[in-house]
């Protein structure tokens, strides 16, 4: 800490072993306590969640309240306006879906703005890097591509995709990718989205005092809005990023805090939009800036990612990744970060204080996200280098003036990332042409029991990274192929699951497939918006045949075992809406046994959607997902092809002891 402004803060000490399994984060938390620096882990330990709010039994939608209902006797009273517990919980849930969907769709719309400006020639720093993907996406949504110029196709694609956000009536373009039977269910229930702006606006309208006061009707609009996220805003964000910056293909990349280099100028980019990061990549490779860094005695400039844009850059370019959401303060405690540039989403306000303690320059760059105490250098895609060059220049100055000792955990793990839906198609594909048929065949013959998406945040309310790792371990040892994004991908990458050799931890069937193809048993697909890749992969599995007619028929399940953000709720709900059983960990904002609970956890499945599940225990989550996968295998009549029995920890121990 800077001696002159050091106020020695009494920090309540954490039980670090119970706080995280990430050794780098643990080492930095110990240092934080020595330095008198507080982190989100410390604040979580000293501030228990409000028990009424945690169960969503509180309504503050008007000033007659806030009204607090009794979670132990949920039907014992109603709010001042008469709102029942089901209305209150459904409205609170709806606001989480609306906010989460707004975050993803606003991100997607920004990407589309950039795309338009690139196509019109007004942005020169980016180009269409993947014209093949451009054509594929355009063709899929009904745009004529044969014999046309790339720019003409791109213009039409822009116009068509803009409907994802602004159209007042009609269905969003990417519903053309949805398997017919899934779409039929959506149409039957009236949940095919119009534009995301309209759906989010209507959902928020309905949660106002005195509007929608039937939990079933509110949930219906939640479903429509969440679909507008997954199959709309998020999917546009992914596809446009691929078109502009390249579709990920498997690439080696290093994770963990050891990616920082003591003798280099370290720049971290943390956030969600790839534009800032892509331009920063140009800046750190600019010979003038590299020379400027060397002139101060640095060996070079080291660019490292964190959180979702970090995962996206890891997947696309193999850029090193320092850690997930719960490590963003911890990484600053190394003292080695010369500048951290952030854009939007999952950026803790607490970063400003920690950055100040260690003399790190923290820069906000997006007009949507300013932080008191951080310097704002706005990023404009028309002149992106003005921002990124300045951040690098400031980082060089900070490197020159580093005063405090640097302590970088000497830990890195190498892995293979970048499994887009296209690369899965190719790697698991047929002999002569890419296809999902071999994947389906391996599911049908029982080598692969099913597919799971394990995604989402990390949270200080649970042992950091542990829930993700335990859950995935259990799934793969039971032959479930795991697809990942975001923070969860980084948890597993740090734990060494991203090498083809990690197949030894898988059950015999999955192991055989992984060893034949040379792939890890967990496949990283990028950022949280790239959960849309999982939706596309699921649709392709339905199309390849043999596993039913709708996504709900697939032997598949999803989980966000350490979730914390509203985006996670929107993601969870679009997975459920798409037909997938989705289990959340940590806690769930609902009271068990209420009508709203029954609807989310059962009723939706009866209507042809997926359903929600909850457990704080990773092993229980795994077995809930596996039981669901087995139920689907049975319904498909492929349960007999699997002779292998369910392996639990006990069986495994016995095997190992034998
Ligand atoms: Ni997604 Fe959670 Fe944030 Fe990314 Fe990480 S916290 S919902 S995984 S960085 S969005």
- Count of DSSP E strands? 16
Number of domains: 3
The CATH topology of the largest domain turns out to be Rossmann fold
As a whole number of angstroms, the C-alpha radius of gyration is 24 Å
Q: Helical region count? A: 26
CA-to-CA gap between the ends?
53 Å
Give the spatial strand order of the biggest sheet: 6-5-4-7-8-9
Characterize the biggest β-sheet.
6 strands, parallel
Q: Give the names of the bound compounds.
A: FE(4)-NI(1)-S(5) cluster
Query: Helicity range of the residues?
Result: 40-55%
Shape: globular
Do you know the CATH architecture of the largest domain?
3-Layer(aba) Sandwich
Strand content: 5-15%
Instruction: Look at the helices and sheets and give the structural class.
Output: alpha/beta
Indicate the CATH class of the largest domain: Alpha Beta
- The low-confidence parts are none
Mean pLDDT: 94
Structural notes for this entry:
- With 658 residues, the protein is α/β, with parallel strands linked by helices.
- It has three domains: 79-245, Substrate Binding Domain Of Dnak, Chain:A, Domain 2, CATH 1.20.1270; 252-400, Rossmann fold (3-Layer(aba) Sandwich); 418-657, Rossmann fold, CATH 3.40.50.2030.
- It has 26 helices and 16 strands.
- A six-stranded parallel beta sheet has the order 6-5-4-7-8-9, sandwiched between helices. Strands 13-12-11-14-15-16 form a six-stranded parallel beta sheet, sandwiched between helices.
- Helix 5 runs antiparallel to helix 7 and helix 19 (466-477) runs parallel beside helix 25.
- It is globular.
């Amino acid at each position: 800490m800077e001696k002159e402004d050091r106020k020695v803060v009494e920090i309540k000490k954490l039980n670090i072993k119970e706080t995280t399994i990430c050794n780098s984060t643990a080492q930095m938390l110990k240092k934080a306590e020595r330095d008198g620096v507080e982190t989100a882990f410390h604040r979580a330990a000293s501030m228990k969640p409000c028990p009424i709010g945690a169960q969503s039994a509180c309504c503050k939608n008007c000033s007659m309240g806030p009204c607090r209902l009794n979670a132990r006797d949920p039907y014992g009273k109603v709010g001042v306006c008469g709102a029942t517990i089901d209305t209150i919980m459904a409205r609170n849930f709806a606001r989480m879906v609306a906010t989460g969907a707004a975050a993803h769709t606003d991100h997607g719309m920004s990407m589309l703005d950039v795309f338009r400006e690139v196509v019109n020639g007004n942005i020169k720093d980016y180009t269409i890097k993947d014209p093949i993907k451009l054509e594929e996406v355009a063709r899929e949504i009904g745009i004529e591509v044969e014999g046309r110029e790339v720019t003409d196709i791109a213009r039409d694609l822009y116009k068509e995709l803009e409907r994802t956000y602004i159209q007042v009536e009609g269905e969003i373009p990417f519903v053309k990718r949805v398997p017919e039977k899934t779409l039929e269910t959506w149409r039957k229930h009236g949940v095919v989205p119009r534009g995301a702006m309209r759906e989010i606006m209507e959902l928020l309208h309905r949660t106002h005092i005195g509007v929608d006061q039937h939990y079933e009707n509110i949930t219906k609009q939640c479903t429509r809005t969440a679909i507008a996220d997954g199959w709309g805003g998020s999917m546009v964000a992914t596809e446009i990023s691929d078109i502009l910056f390249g579709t990920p293909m498997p690439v080696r990349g290093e994770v963990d805090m050891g990616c920082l280099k003591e003798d280099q100028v370290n720049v971290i980019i943390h956030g969600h939009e790839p534009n800032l990061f892509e331009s920063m990549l140009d800046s750190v490779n600019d010979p003038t800036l590299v020379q400027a860094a060397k002139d101060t005695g640095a060996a070079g400039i080291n660019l490292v990612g964190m959180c979702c844009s970090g995962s996206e850059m890891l997947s696309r370019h193999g850029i090193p990744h320092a850690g997930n959401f719960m490590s963003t303060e911890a990484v600053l405690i190394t003292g080695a970060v010369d500048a951290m540039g952030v854009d939007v989403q999952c950026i803790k306000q607490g970063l400003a204080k920690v950055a100040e303690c260690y003399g790190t320059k923290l820069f906000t760059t997006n007009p949507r996200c300013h932080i008191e105490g951080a310097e704002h250098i706005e990023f404009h895609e028309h002149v992106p280098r003005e921002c990124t060059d300045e951040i690098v220049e400031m980082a060089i100055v900070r490197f020159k003036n580093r005063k405090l000792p640097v302590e970088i955990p000497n830990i890195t793990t190498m892995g293979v990332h970048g499994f887009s839906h296209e690369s899965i198609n190719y790697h698991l594909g047929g002999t002569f042409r890419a296809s999902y048929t071999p994947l389906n065949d391996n599911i049908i013959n029982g080598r692969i029991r099913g597919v799971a998406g394990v995604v989402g945040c990390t949270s200080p309310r649970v042992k950091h990274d542990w829930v993700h790792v335990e859950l995935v371990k259990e799934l793969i040892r039971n032959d479930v192929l795991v697809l990942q994004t975001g923070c969860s991908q980084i948890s597993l990458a740090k734990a060494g699951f991203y090498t083809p050799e990690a197949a030894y931890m898988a059950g015999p069937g999955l192991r055989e497939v992984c060893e034949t193809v040379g792939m890890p048993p967990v496949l990283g697909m990028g950022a949280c918006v790239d959960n849309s890749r999982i939706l596309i992969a699921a649709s392709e599995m339905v199309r390849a045949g043999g596993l039913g007619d709708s996504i709900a028929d697939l032997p598949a399940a999803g989980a966000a075992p350490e979730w914390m953000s509203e985006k996670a709720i929107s993601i969870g709900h679009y997975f459920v809406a798409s037909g997938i059983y989705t289990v959340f960990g940590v806690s769930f904002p609902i009271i068990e046994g209420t009508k709203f609970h029954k609807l989310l956890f059962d009723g939706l499945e009866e209507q042809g959607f997926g359903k929600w599940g909850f457990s704080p225990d990773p092993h229980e989550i795994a077995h809930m997902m596996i039981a669901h996968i087995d139920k689907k295998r049975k319904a498909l009549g492929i349960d007999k092809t699997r002779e292998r029995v369910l392996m639990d920890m006990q069986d495994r121990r016995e095997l190992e002891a034998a």
